[in-house]
Amino acid sequence: QVQVVESGGGLVQAGGSLRLSCTASGLTFDDYAMGWFRQAPGEEREGISCISRSGSRKYYADSVKGRFTISRDNAENTLYLQMNVLTPEDSAMYYCAATFLPYDDCSVFWYRSAGKDYWGKGTLVTISS
After folding, report:
1. Could you read off the pLDDT of 15-59 as tens digits, one per residue?
2. Alpha helices in the chain (DSSP H)
């Protein structure tokens, strides 16, 4: 049984940092591209970053580029999102998603919620002004 579990969310002041983690079990982790998404109340789910199976390719939404860094540790079956210079607009539920891909890239439609194989239940990030 596949499980995907996010952690690391919390309440921080604007300008601060958080590091999210996502641990997956029940699958061969390095067969999957991984992505981070977020959803604020009343908004659609937004793809913010993806990382290829080996970690060699990474993509970011413009809204987080230069502030967020995605990484993965395949030996630990864990995905990370380092978030710096946080603003209240970053407040949302953050989700990670796993997508089985037979190649080492995630550039095609990485930002779309559709087509992902497994999702976690999310971790809440709240940024105070």
Report:
1. 999 999 999 999 999 999 999 999 999 999 999 999 999 999 999
2. none
CB 72 within 8 Å of CB 34: yes
Q: Which residues pair with 89 in a beta bridge?
A: none
Question: Rounded CA gap, 8 and 123, in Å?
Answer: 7
Q: Convert the pLDDT of each residue in 78-119 to its tens digit.
A: 999 999 999 999 999 999 999 999 999 998 888 888 889 999
- The CA distances from residue 17 to 33, 41, 112, in Å, are 25, 21, 26
Cα dihedral 46, 126, 7, 55 in deg (nearest 10): 40
The CA-atom distances, in angstroms, between 68 and each of 2, 25, 86 are 27, 25, 9
CA distance 79 to 108: 19
